[in-house]
Amino acid sequence: MSVASSPEPSVAADPRFSPPGYFDALATRVLDGSPITRAEALSILQASDLDVPAILAAGYRIRHHYFGNSVQLYFLMNAKSGLCPEDCHYCSQSKISEAPVPKYNILKRDELLDAARVASERGAKTYCLVISARGPNEREMNAVETIVPEIKQKYGLDICACLGLLTDEQAKRLKACGVDRVNHNLNSSESHYEKICTTHTYADRVQTLRNVRDAGMEMCSGGIIGMGESKADIVSMAFDLAELGVQSIPVNILNAIDGTPLEGTDAMSPQDALKALAMFRFVNPSRELRIAGGRELHLRMLQPMGLYVANSVFVGDYLTTKGQAPQADYDMINDLGFEVTGSCEEFSLDSPSVSR
Ligand code: SF4
């Protein structure tokens, strides 16, 4: 048969694909300043795995618009481990967890300073000071108020404090001692919250974020996906974060630790985790989006793809679980052709380098 008479290859459209250009059109709308709807956000989560490349490509346009190819690194310091009276079902440090985690009270000044040195050496811009607690007691507040000015003066790191629930007065004290940002995750949707914690409420968490915002600090708040919630729950959380105006959104993928009530929870697939990360980018286009705990465990070989929509990762270990070696993160960022940035402020909305 001659080449000229060859029939045109005809491939029937696979119905599992979304209509061509669907996600790209959503990204264009977002970049034009029109938020996507909850139904559209849900459609990202409900898309088939075949759509993942198109979702990421569209999400990357948004990510690139606001953050270029920059990657912001965060360094976590578990300044007080275990001994928490709360019952968050995902947490290995709660009173009801039987997981064998280290238990210690807030670390001494030298240990906190030494960790800041390591954070600085690893290229992190932000030092996340975390304690396991319902909220900080007076001793813990005093320790934070003492160490924060020292770390900032010595290493020039931004400080994000994660101390649990905060009163408005505590938030003001943290602002006064130099804390730049407070992390307090919503963790899940309002309707799913009572299934993952009974010792405090979703409303308590929202109030702490409002106290942080009113004190003049930035809000870092995200959640954990893969805790048995529905796709609509994940959408709901993403919209609540947008409405609160949080500046930084860490998205954890549940690492179901043995000994916690969520032990044995089905793992989220890498494709579903990527769709969720992308959905957070579409709903919160200009906000820092961090792939947090569970990155290595659930994204596995697809970790680099997550950075097409997220613009930040933790470097080093998580609170009670291991992360990959810092060099592996630097190599990943390098291989993507992305670069570690010194500061997210360089990529603020007002920056001419990231014009709308
Ligand atoms: S308040 Fe924090 S440390 Fe305590 S159980 Fe909940 S997540 Fe864990």
UniProtKB/TrEMBL annotation:
Quaternary structure, from the entry: Homodimer.
Domain of life: Bacteria
Lineage: Bacteria, Pseudomonadati, Planctomycetota, Planctomycetia, Pirellulales
UniProt keyword Iron, yes or no: yes
GO process annotations (BP): biotin biosynthetic process
Enzyme Commission numbers on file: 2.8.1.6
Ranges of residues in domain Radical SAM core: 66-292
UniProt-recorded name of the protein: Biotin synthase
Cofactor(s) recorded in Swiss-Prot or TrEMBL: [2Fe-2S] cluster; [4Fe-4S] cluster
Pfam families: BATS, Radical_SAM
GO MF annotations in UniProt: 2 iron, 2 sulfur cluster binding; 4 iron, 4 sulfur cluster binding; biotin synthase activity; iron ion binding
UniProt xrefs under InterPro entries: Aldolase_TIM, BATS_dom, Biotin_synth/BioAB, Biotin_synthase, Elp3/MiaA/NifB-like_rSAM, rSAM, rSAM_sf
Catalytic activity: (4R,5S)-dethiobiotin + (sulfur carrier)-SH + 2 reduced [2Fe-2S]-[ferredoxin] + 2 S-adenosyl-L-methionine = (sulfur carrier)-H + biotin + 2 5'-deoxyadenosine + 2 L-methionine + 2 oxidized [2Fe-2S]-[ferredoxin]
